[in-house]
Amino acid sequence: MTCTDFLSQLTDYFDGQIPPALLEEVRTHMAECHHCEVVVNTTRQTIEVYRGNEVYDVSDEFRERLHSAIMAKCAGARKRA
Ligand SMILES: [Zn+2]
């Protein structure tokens, strides 16, 4: 699983709609990829804040921003490696 694959599963992951086989892959990727682990933690916190304010909605715009932020980070990490 690549970071892109991971990110495309992220909404389903948070919605609890992810198939068990994919969930396993997502967890494996999270264990191996620090960037995606950070994204998951940040997203979870964000969702909890939104839920607390009863405006929970992971909009397309939010996903877009998240996606570009992560891809930028992963690209930077690859360059340093
Ligand atoms: Zn990743």
Average pLDDT for all residues:
82
How large is the count of helical segments? 4
Cα separation of the termini: 19 Å
Radius of gyration: 13 Å
Bound molecules: zinc ion
Q: What is the count of distinct domains?
A: 1
Low-confidence region ranges: none
Shape: globular
Strand content: under 5%
What's the total number of strands? 0
What profile does the largest beta sheet have? none
Walk me through this protein's architecture.
The mean pLDDT is 82. Helix 1 runs antiparallel to helix 4. This protein has one domain. The two termini are 19 Å apart. With 81 residues, the chain is mostly helical. The longest helix has 21 residues. It contains four helices and no strands. Bound molecules: zinc ion. The site of zinc ion has 6 residues, from helix 1 and helix 3.
What's the arrangement of secondary structure elements?
Layout: H1 3-15, H2 20-32, H3 34-52, H4 60-80
Helix pairs in contact: 1-2, 1-4, 2-3
The structure holds zinc ion.
